[in-house]
Design brief:
The strands form seven sheets. Strands 14-13-15-16-22-21-20-18 form an eight-stranded mixed beta sheet, covered by helices on one side. It is of the alpha/beta class. The two termini are 36 Å apart. The protein contains eleven helices and 31 strands.
């Protein structure tokens, strides 16, 4: 305590008292009368002197403690409270409503704040954004109504935004506390920074004791290469790492509301499975996936939907360097005859061109690094490169009789078998972290796909014409079509289906909305344009423009946290106290002030009631 040095003054005054002066008087009768009335022995006067010192020190100590405003278990000393409530998707987990972490936290918040009705409360809710819902609330009906409006949304939570907002709100008024209500602890560095700034952070954590969850993390529809009018669906099912045991689930695939397929999956904790299935639907018909598991506790990630898009030809800009490969031209012609591609052959000497295709296909050629376009790229048999990653050209082709597929779930290698492939490598790659190897031969990547600087990219350092069996198999046209269609699905193109995460705000025109309610899909017809914030998964089909798919697809929300051993977790990262909670309007500061007054009266009665001066 920085003010404890004040206790030195009464000790000095008691130890260094002034001696009584001798003064001659005319008579001693009056003083003798007083001495008989207040007769005390020497030892009693000595005891009273030290007792008076002790009581005086206690009075000063109690007053100092009261000035420090000690906080009990409920934080009675706070001038205000910033209550931060998590309303992301995981807060709605539970088989029953009463089991949901958000519902249980609401009850705890109301109980705790009812003990301090005089303290104003600022209510902050966060998911993908953090917003101030109410300010200067008082305990009781007003606070209960405000908390009732906070409901879990099928949106990924961004705790960093809430931490920043809560810190700025707490800095507006000295003595403000932050109460954090979530199923996860806040960032430890932020909590420590708040403690150093003098802002206590009280953490209330509610999580399921036995979370069990499977979620649909990805879903897409795309046309099959060399198959006119045929489409294929890809879906990815992920099991939460906190699952207590393996889970079995059933996935219903429906087209226009009719059951098309049923798939069974069984996943260990933290496992994943990819589903590939043919889709027969007309443009504008909805395709939905509904996952059902007996012990699943989170419904927000159990449904995905997409409207069957119109199949428009994919515009491909094809630039060829020296020694063009005739088999590449043959594969492109086959895809063009199916009505799936619209290739534009661009001479390398005319780079940069005036055309803007959806996908660039560069064969044995790349432009200078400063003139690379922003569209997706396919590098087939690339030349020597230093940027964006090193490519070392081999003087002669290196036959690779054994090709191993390591990315079997990736759409680029869908329906392509490597069992009978013999490929001739033309370059050695050193891939950046954003590119994933799909084929490996001789311990080095032979085919890779991923994203680089915001665009999709596929790299294939081999020659089709020089390979023994690749040119004679249907695998290469299918592989090339897969790569073109996968790159053409880039949301930045503005063509096809746009994929947006839940929590995104967009301008929505008139159209049809197919939304996931947590149990089934409900279709709505919207006739007016407006700004909307997508707060649940679904699919949007406008009257004009490209359709959109709204997905949760959040591993952080599907991977539910587990409650700490021993039950509920409730900590105060700063301002924690061993003092018990006081009932009613009592605070420890008020109690200490009353105790100091009582000690002062006691000292006066014991030591100065019959004092003679």
């Amino acid at each position: 305590m920085p003010l404890a040095w004040l206790l030195v003054f009464p000790i000095v005054l008691y130890l260094f008292r002034r001696q009584a002066r001798r003064v001659p008087v005319s008579t001693l009768l009056f003083f003798q009368t007083l001495a008989r009335e207040h007769r005390e022995t020497a030892w009693l006067r000595h005891v009273k002197r030290w007792l008076s010192l002790l009581l005086t020190l206690l009075v000063l100590l109690v007053l100092l403690l009261a000035l420090l405003r000690p906080v009990g278990d409920a934080g009675e000393g706070a001038a205000a409270v910033v209550l931060v409530v998590d309303r992301s998707a995981s807060m709605g987990a539970g088989r029953e409503v009463e089991e949901q972490p958000l519902v249980r936290l609401k009850r705890r918040m109301l109980t705790a704040l009812a003990q301090r009705p005089e303290v104003p409360v600022t209510l902050v809710a966060f998911d993908a954004r953090a917003v101030v819902l109410r300010t200067r609330l008082s305990g009781g009906v007003e606070l209960a109504r405000a908390l009732e409006e906070v409901q879990p949304l099928a949106v990924e939570g961004e705790a960093a935004l809430a931490e920043d907002l809560a810190g700025r709100l707490a800095g507006l008024e000295e003595g403000t506390e932050i109460w954090w209500a979530s199923d996860r602890e806040p960032d430890a560095a932020w909590t420590e920074a708040m403690r150093e700034a003098g802002t206590p952070v009280r953490t209330w954590v509610e999580a399921l004791a036995r979370p069990m969850n499977l979620g649909l993390q990805a879903f897409q529809l795309r046309p099959l290469p060399l198959a006119r009018g045929q489409w294929e669906g890809f879906a990815r099912v992920v099991a939460a790492a906190s699952n207590a045991a393996a889970m079995e689930a059933e996935v219903e695939i429906r087209v226009a509301g009719r059951l098309a397929q049923l798939r069974q999956v069984r996943l260990e904790p933290g496992g994943a499975a990819t589903l590939q299935f043919p889709v027969e639907a007309q443009p504008g018909q909805p395709v939905t996936l509904h996952l059902t598991a007996a012990e699943d506790v989170l419904a927000a990630d159990d449904g995905v939907a997409e409207w069957m898009p119109q199949q428009a030809p994919l515009r491909v800009g094809w630039v060829v360097g020296e020694d063009p490969d005739p088999f590449v031209e043959t594969a492109l012609k086959a895809l063009t005859e199916q009505g799936q591609l619209e290739p534009w052959r661009v001479p390398a000497a005319e780079w940069p061109p005036q055309v803007q295709p959806d996908v660039w296909l560069w064969e044995n050629w790349v432009p200078p690094a400063e003139s690379w376009p922003s569209a997706p790229l396919i590098l087939l048999n690339p030349p020597e490169l230093t940027q964006p990653f090193p490519v070392r050209r081999l003087p002669k082709g290196l036959p690779e009789p054994v090709v191993r597929s390591v990315g079997v779930d990736h759409p680029v290698v869908g329906r392509v078998s490597t069992q009978r492939l013999a490929v001739t490598r033309t370059a050695s790659l050193h891939l950046p972290a954003s590119l994933e190897p799909l084929w490996i031969a001789g311990g080095e990547p032979l085919l890779a796909a991923g994203e680089w600087q915001g665009r999709r990219m596929v790299v294939a350092p081999f020659s089709v014409a020089a390979s023994e069996q690749l040119a004679l198999e249907p695998a290469f046209p299918v592989l090339l079509g897969n790569a073109l269609f996968w790159c053409g699905e880039d949301p930045q193109l503005g063509r096809g289906v746009a994929v947006v995460p839940t929590g995104t705000a967009q301008w929505r025109s008139a159209g049809r909305w197919l939304g996931w309610t947590g149990r089934d899909f409900v279709e709505e017809v919207v006739g007016e344009a407006a700004w909307v914030r997508w707060e649940r998964p679904g699919a949007w089909l406008p009257e004009k423009g490209a359709p959109a798919v709204v997905r949760l697809a959040s591993g952080a929300e599907s991977d539910l946290p587990m409650a700490a051993a021993g039950g509920e977790v409730e900590t105060a990262a700063a301002g924690a106290s061993w003092l018990p909670r006081l009932p009613g309007v009592w605070t420890w500061s008020r109690l200490l002030l009353l105790a100091g007054l009582g000690l002062l009266l006691l000292e006066s009665w014991l030591c100065h009631r019959h004092a003679v001066y």
